[in-house]
Every structure is written in C-alpha cells, then in structure tokens.
C-alpha cells in the first residue's frame, strides 16, 4: 500500500489543527507503512519507541559539512554555473517580502505571504545527506517543515497526482537568468505521494540560521533520497496537476536526468559513474547508497517500477 493512500483517508477527516497535534502519531503511522513488516511488528508489540528509532533512520549522525562549504559551494544557475557564483553573485537578490502562489487542482488556491505560511508549521531541524547528480555530497542541517503539512492545508483535489514548483524569475537580480544557462524559470515536480512523504521538507533555514541566498532563500525544497537538482530553490509557485510535469534538467537533457532522479548507484549518468561520490571535505570517495541511504523509508514508493528505465 502506498503511503499516500493510507494517509489520504485521515486527512480528509481530520482538521488541520488535529492533524498538527497528532503529528507524532501520524509520523508513526507513516513510518509503519513505509517501513513495512519490521515497523508493523514493532507497533504490534506496542513498541512505539522502536518506530521512533526507525524513523530516526531519516536522520544521520554523520558529521555535518562545515557551514562555510555548504554556503559557498553551490549549484544555483540563476546566479551562474560556477560553484562560487551563487554566494558571490547573489548579493542583490531580494527575498523580503516574499509570497508563494498556489494554483491548479487544489481547493485553496491563492497567493500567500511567506511569513504567514511558515508560521502555521512546526519548523524542525533535519540533518540530511545531500547527493548531487555530479557525484559530490554533503551532510546538511536544514531547518524546515514537512511539505505534507502544507499540502494537507491546501487540500488537493482527487485528480491531483503531481506537485509542481517554480523558482522566481527575476533577471535583474539574477545574473544567470540574463544568460541562456538554462531555460528559466527553473521548474521541478514530485509525484504527490513523494511530496507527502515525511522526509520531504520545505527548508527555510540552514544551520539554525535563515537560508542564504546561495542555498535558495527564502524557501526551497529538500528531498533527501533524490539527486540535488530536485531540490528547487527560491520557490514562488506551487501547483497541483494530473499529468507528470516538465522539469528543468529533464527538459534540457532527458537521457541524462530523469523525472524521478532517485539516487541510484546502479544507474550511471551517461558521462560518469554514480557508484561512488566525493563527500565535500573528505579525501577518499564513498560508496553511493541506493536512495541515498533512505531506502528503508522510501523504496516502498517505487514498488513495481523499473528504476533503470524510470530513472
Ligand atoms: N532554482 C534552482 N534550484 C536548484 C538549482 C538551480 O540551479 N536552480 N540547482 C540544483 C542542484 S543541481 C543542486 S545539487 C542543489 C544544490 O543545493 P545547495 O547549493 O543548497 O547545496 O540545488 C538544486 N536547486
Ligand atoms: Mo546537483
């Protein structure tokens, strides 16, 4: 059973407040479904602690990559393609005030002021591995809230199967947008059940500080089991659609960058191996893990799919 299908039922019946208050239980239920038999057995024994521990798999105790590296070695083509461009060339980027427009197959469309939106959610710290498709990785302490909590408030219509995201288009403040580095605005998308997964967050902070412009201020997506390019930055639009939406890197090079972009050491990029990665700050390469090490929590989402063909 998919995570989304299970959670869809209570969502229709529970008010946002109740949902918010019962979030811990909700997480447990989500974990039980995603983790399958092991967690169910644990739940059966009434061992809620065991599920908490399993949920803890989403956290890593690996040493976070230093703040300096996380905020100066970036991909954000709106500011240029060099890793140093986003931090060096984003000084004129204005992120306050900021609003996010919600459109498409959802009950609560509209334009929302970011502070008012964020105030509704519990912002928590999530330390996640981040694996770029270019075969480097970091460990990043994010501050953010679960995208599922926002989606629950927005109430998708039954036909909605995918969530879309769009980055701000502001060439006067984003030098990379004044050149043809990518077709802008940058767009991304997730299947609704991926978007509803408890690991998927909208980040507003990094290292307990506000997000830097280079990291996607004031709000960006983080999906830790997918390649970094799915983590779209500086989001101004969120949509709900029935069909799989176009996504920027997939438009540019469909044979190199799939829609799903799940981290997969067994599927090489046409121009390089994905079997190992360079952790920023380390000398020896590490093995890349399926789903970036989050497989126990997310593999269930892709049951029955051929992950070589649907990369
Ligand atoms: N709008 C936008 N979002 C983006 C990108 C981009 O160029 N533009 N680059 C992506 C890529 S390739 C990666 S690896 C991550 C990098 O996030 P970080 O710089 O915060 O580590 O952002 C992603 N989000
Ligand atoms: Mo990336």
Instruction: Enumerate the spans where pLDDT stays under 50 for 5 or more consecutive residues.
Output: 1-23
| Beta-strand content estimate | 15-25%
**Number of DSSP E strands:** 12
Tell me the structural class. Answer: alpha+beta
What is the CATH fold-level name? Answer: Sulfite Oxidase, Chain A, domain 2
Give the second-level CATH assignment, the architecture.
Alpha-Beta Complex
Number of helices: 12
CATH class: Alpha Beta
Largest sheet: 7 strands, mixed
- What is the CATH H-level superfamily? Oxidoreductase, molybdopterin-binding domain
Shape: globular
Q: What is the terminal-to-terminal distance?
A: 22 Å
The rounded Rg comes to 19 Å
Q: How many domain units?
A: 1
Order of helices and strands: HHHHHHHEEHEEHEEHEEEEHEEH
Write out key terms for the chains shown.
311 residues, Sulfite Oxidase, Chain A, domain 2, seven-stranded mixed β-sheet, five-stranded mixed β-sheet, 12 helices, globular, disordered N terminus, binds ligand MTE, binds molybdenum atom
